[in-house]
Amino acid sequence: MIPLLALCVFLFLLIIPSIIFYKLCWIPLRLQRLMESQGIRGPPYRFLHGNTREIIKMKQQTKDAAAMDISHDIFPIILPHWYSWIKLYGNNFLYWIGTEPEIVVTEPELVKEILSNKQGTFRKIVAKRAYWKKLLGDGLIAAEGEKWLKLRKLANHAFHGESLKDMVPEITACVETMLEKWRNYHGKEIEVCSEFKHLSSEVISRTAFGSNCLEGRKIFDMLSKLIVLISRNMLKIRPFGLGKFIRTQDDKEADKIEQLLHDSIMEIVNKRQDEVQTGKADSFGNDFLGSLLKSHHDTDPKSHISAAEIIDECKTFYFGGQETTFSLLSWTTFLLAIHTEWQDRAREEVLQLFGQQNPNSDGLSRLKTVNMILYETLRLYGAVTNIVRRTGSRMKLGKYELPANIRVSIPPLALHRNPEIWGQDAHLFKPERFAQGMAKATNGIPTAFLGFGFGPRTCVGLNFAISEAKITFSMILQRYKFTLSSDYVHSPFILLTAQPQRGVGILLQPL
Ligand code: HEM
Asked: Where does heme bind (predicted)?
């Protein structure tokens, strides 16, 4: 009996350390060597933590230094680790979030290969992490294959062409409501980030879901809480799937929010269904929610979507429609407040096209200067700072051979600041770059600008977001001149999207 027990203890003491050694040392070091032999270097893997401690330290250092002056060179400030590793190890490098390897790619040709995804080899990754899944579910941002095709078709229809035209009066009404409030700030300062956060929530709630501001606000409050939890836990290491067994306070909070989010969305969905079932309405409606419900009730399995898919899709669009757009509106205001010559040029264009009338959809497509300003803002301060994929199987990328199931990250900021593409003045705000169109601005390199992504997964809300921004700035410029508050502190940071951490205060002068 005793020898058997001793044998068990001996095996236990031998096997457990061997597994730990294999998983936490052998595999990472072998991968590191494999990639190095192909020319992909990077910061050395450290036991269990990978490079997370260095990342946290570098981020802390730049956070303290960030507020010093107004420079548009924000890559070293908001992504200091990637910035310094590109300098040290070259355009493509390998680093570690805990034991999870990630290859960062910034060479335009390779980026094109990844995002074109011709053989379907570079997969989406976003919802595989627990917190992300709570935020987006398996909606359009995360879906793949047949499901992605089905969802993309629905979204394309809802956010393009005639549907988009029909939304113009709704968006205009939302901006009017915001500007009514601005009347109380004539000659005073107003912080616009919170204004735009509210506006973009209102716009997506009304245009896509026909929901009122109260219903929408409840959902956005919960999404905002989830975003904070995601950011807080992004670099926390939990090896061996420990996260499944040990529940932290944040995990429990996230579960609670997920349930509340589900219930709030179901309320909106059920209300719309009940209207049809009780005869109050004769159809589910022409907005995005209406299309989702029509598909839900479609018996053809090719078009049918489940109730769970409706919930995920609602979460995806509430999130996608707000976070990114509010960032674009805030940064554009900041740039126009300090580059008042561009503010004047944009105003002149708006007044020529619309006079004092509300914008209309034909006029929006003719706003060339405003368009150039928006694209230059997205180049310098793009909301999305990381486009992530995962290799499905062992595969080639350019001259490299990548292992299966490895994360591949593309930082748009690195391409947007590349002086070989954009010139030595890449850090300057020069909307005139886009005067002759995108191809000319990017020197014919299609992945030089990734503000809305590239390839089949390009942002489905692109036209919607640009229209919303054009309407918003047309209506602001018709009424006001504005300059930057003397209290403004330049501290861009990432809370999933790139945002002005301490807001953007402007001084409003009515015209
Ligand atoms: C200025 C505003 C916006 C920016 C900068 C932006 C940026 C992006 C980027 C870079 C991607 C590609 C992500 C990837 O390839 O992994 C993307 C995808 C997506 N965006 Fe946007 N977006 C904006 C507005 C919107 C709006 C208003 C909506 C919804 C109405 C939206 C919904 C989506 C969805 C659903 C996807 C996933 C598309 C797919 O995978 O097929 N976005 N966005």
From this structure: 459
3-state secondary structure 210-235: CCCHHHHHHHHHHHHHHHHHHHHHCC
**508 Cβ below 6 A of ligand 1:** no
In a domain, 5, yes or no: no
Average pLDDT, the chain: 91
User: What is the count of structural domains for the chain?
Assistant: 1
318 lines ligand 1 (CB under 6 A): no
d(CA 25, CA 19): 10
| pLDDT at residue number 73 | 92
| Listed ranges 49-53, 368-372, 392-396; the one with the highest mean pLDDT | 368-372
Q: Identify any residues that bridge with 195 across adjacent strands, giving them in sequence order.
A: none
From the alpha carbon of 141, which atom of ligand 1 is closest?
A: 37
Query: Is any atom of ligand 1 closer than 6 Å to the C-beta of 465?
Result: yes
Q: Quick check: CB of 347 below 6 Å from ligand 1? A: no
154, 295 contact by CB (below 8 A): yes
Domain containing residue 335: 22-510
CA of 459 to the centre of ligand 1 (A): 4
Report the predicted TM-score, pTM, of the whole model to 2 decimal places: 0.93
Domain with 89 in it: what CATH number?
1.10.630.10
Query: What is the tens place of the pLDDT at every residue in 272-284?
Result: 999 888 888 888 8
